[in-house]
Write a structure and sequence with these properties.
With about 375 residues, the chain is of the alpha/beta class. It folds into 2 domains: about 130 residues, Enolase-like, N-terminal domain (Enolase-like, domain 1, 2-Layer Sandwich); about 230 residues, TIM Barrel. Helix content is about 40%, strand content about 15%. It is built from 12 helices and 13 strands. The protein has a 7-stranded parallel sheet. The two termini are about 30 Å apart.
Length: about 375
């Protein structure tokens, strides 16, 4: 069996509300679907959720756009991969790395589609291809975007009322606001809801970041994500902090993970499939974390159902992923199980909602990614 064609299609979903975080300049909801078709007619789907204005510490990992991902897949990766075996996923990554440097979001979408096709060929869900599940479900941390304090409190309270037991609070623009909001959330929600403040590198010099993290800890925060830029600064904050520090922008791939371990740059790692270029690269980051007893979560750029299905499979299979995942609960219009928790879009391009219980996503057990993509909806939401 060989790959007969690879095609990239950009599309947009309608967001439930405006979601922003520090540094984000574009509107949420833009995606690139990648469709891999074999010569026997099996179709695998992947997805990229590119952002032009987000790329790691000091611009070392470049941003991508709907247009760049579409072009790289259609013009570079497709010609290089057509005719190869769709189940040889590591070899496919090698081919893509030889064809182009960087472009990890585009590589991730292809890698994802190949895993979906491979699962359909073997009749196995992707999490079993990754070694099998090590947990029964994936607890979800609802993201509360940058918004006014009253709106943020209402969003958080609504998500917890739905069943979420963890929150990621976006901050990093105004430290005093972040401290006030954290204290208000702790008073309102009590001690049992995990509060994670994501500063998106916004607290500046390590000495300033250390002071802010200490005050956040006094206000009741459980974790602080990426308070400063660069592993050297992160290491200073981590050494001084009484709460765990999470690396996001500072850890994209296995090379970053090795540097983080050597420099003791963080207590936890936020793994994105896209940052590492797909399942193949992300599994290497998770292996480093597992070996060094570093807790991880699965995070992303609020994917559609295709990318989010991949997130669920990865989180189920990786022992190091012990933190609640900052990922959606995907569902088509009118079927979402919750009013707020995990609900970022008003519709999606799948036929059925993801199974969920008590704020945690359950396994998707059908072959491949375990979802049915609605091609009619894709055509309706297509944007290029």
């Amino acid at each position: 069996m060989t790959i007969a064609s690879i095609e990239a299609v950009p599309f947009r979903l309608p967001p439930r509300r405006d979601f922003k975080w520090a540094g984000l300049q574009v509107d949420l909801g833009g995606f690139v679907l990648v469709r891999v078709t074999t010569d026997s007619g099996i179709v695998g789907y992947g997805e990229a959720t590119p952002l032009p204005d987000w790329g790691g510490d000091f611009g070392r990992h470049a941003g991508e756009t709907l247009a760049t991902v579409t072009a790289m897949v259609n013009e570079v990766f497709a010609p290089a991969l057509v005719g190869t075996d769709p189940t040889q996923v590591r070899h496919a990554r090698t081919i893509m790395d030889r064809a182009a440097i960087g472009n990890v979001y585009a590589k991730c979408a292809v890698d994802m589609a190949l895993h979906d096709a491979w699962g359909k060929i073997t009749g196995l869900p992707v999490y079993k291809l990754l070694g099998g599940s090590v947990r029964a479900s994936v607890p979800v941390a609802h993201m509360v975007g940058l918004m006014g304090e009253e709106d943020a409190l209402a969003e958080a309270e609504g998500a917890v009322a739905d069943g979420a037991r963890a929150l990621q609070i976006k901050g990093g623009v105004d430290a005093e606001r972040d401290i006030r909001l954290t204290a208000a959330l702790r008073r309102s929600l009590g001690p049992d809801v995990l509060l994670r403040l994501d500063a998106n590198q916004g607290y500046g010099h390590p000495k300033a970041a250390i002071r802010i993290v200490r005050r956040l800890a006094e206000a009741g925060v459980d974790l602080v994500e990426q308070p400063a830029a660069g592993l050297a600064a992160m290491a200073e904050v981590t050494a001084a902090a009484s709460v765990p520090i999470v690396a996001d922008e500072s850890c994209w791939d296995i090379h970053d993970a090795l540097d983080l371990v050597a420099m003791r740059g963080a207590d936890c790692i936020s793994i994105y499939l896209a940052k590492a270029g797909g399942f193949v690269g992300a599994a290497k980051v998770a292996a480093i974390a597992e070996a060094r007893h570093i807790a991880c979560d699965v995070n992303g750029s609020i994917e559609s159902a295709i990318g989010n299905a991949a997130n669920v499979h990865f989180a189920l299979a990786m022992p190091a992923v012990t933190l609640p995942a900052v990922i959606p609960i995907s569902a088509p219009a009118g079927t979402h199980p919750y009013r707020i928790a995990g609900r970022y879009y008003e519709d999606d391009i799948v036929d059925a909602p993801f199974p969920v219980k008590d704020g945690a996503l359950l396994p998707l057990d059908a072959p491949g990614l375990g979802i049915a993509v609605n091609e009619a909806k894709l055509a309706r939401f297509r944007c290029g």
